[in-house]
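Per your request, structure below.
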């Protein structure tokens, strides 16, 4: 795929391709702060993460979660960033991010416009699990599964929303919770088919020619005739 062609493609300021997908129309009660997930499609370029982070730090905006991953299109990656801000601020941020050369498109969405999960891991005392059946029942209740079992500790993992993984921390606290870690958010936009189709269109039809023929190559006399 010709990345240069794809990067030069920018959706309209209202988002979407042919009106297929638009930016989040919601703004929260009275335009107050709320949680937004920003999804950024980019070329996989060295230094881009730092430049994007600077955009947030200059505005003194705290990033709650940041994840990078490949996409369904070769050569295109995505950033998933979670912040708590007003929609007006998030809209301006998205436009500023899109000014970066390597950025294809930036979207922002509220929680009800995406499907998202976070992975969490818990290290607990193996003795506690063996001695207290209640701990094992609690882990099953929260959908946790063992990934490492040793004599001195057992590591469980589970996926879910932050409220769910935080709740399990509280539940395991009295039973010898040794360590807890949670991943950044991964999210899929529910209504993003328009942009996905446009990306796939580039993937299938872009010629990706390495060498572009100069249209004036055989017209030296015309071009340079004084």
């Amino acid at each position: 795929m010709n990345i240069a062609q794809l990067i030069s493609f920018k959706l309209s300021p209202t988002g979407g391709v042919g009106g297929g997908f638009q930016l989040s129309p919601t703004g929260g009660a009275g335009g107050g702060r709320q949680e937004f997930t920003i999804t950024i499609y980019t070329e996989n370029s060295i230094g881009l993460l730092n430049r994007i982070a600077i955009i947030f730090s200059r505005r003194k905006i705290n990033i709650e979660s940041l994840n990078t991953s490949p996409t369904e299109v070769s050569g295109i990656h995505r950033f998933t960033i979670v912040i708590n801000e007003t929609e007006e601020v998030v809209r301006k941020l998205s436009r500023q991010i899109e000014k970066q050369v390597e950025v294809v498109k930036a979207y922002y969405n509220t929680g009800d416009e995406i499907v998202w999960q976070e992975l969490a891991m818990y290290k607990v005392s193996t003795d506690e699990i063996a001695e207290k059946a209640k701990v094992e029942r609690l882990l099953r209740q929260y959908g946790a599964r063992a990934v490492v079992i040793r004599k001195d500790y057992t590591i469980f993992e589970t996926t879910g929303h932050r409220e769910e993984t935080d709740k399990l921390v509280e539940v395991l606290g009295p039973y010898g919770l040794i360590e807890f870690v949670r991943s950044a958010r991964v999210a899929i936009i529910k209504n993003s088919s328009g942009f996905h189709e446009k990306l796939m269109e580039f993937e299938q039809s872009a010629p990706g020619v390495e060498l572009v023929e100069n249209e004036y190559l055989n017209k030296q006399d015309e071009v340079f005739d004084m």
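Residues 193-205 form the longest helix (13 residues).

Regards,
D.
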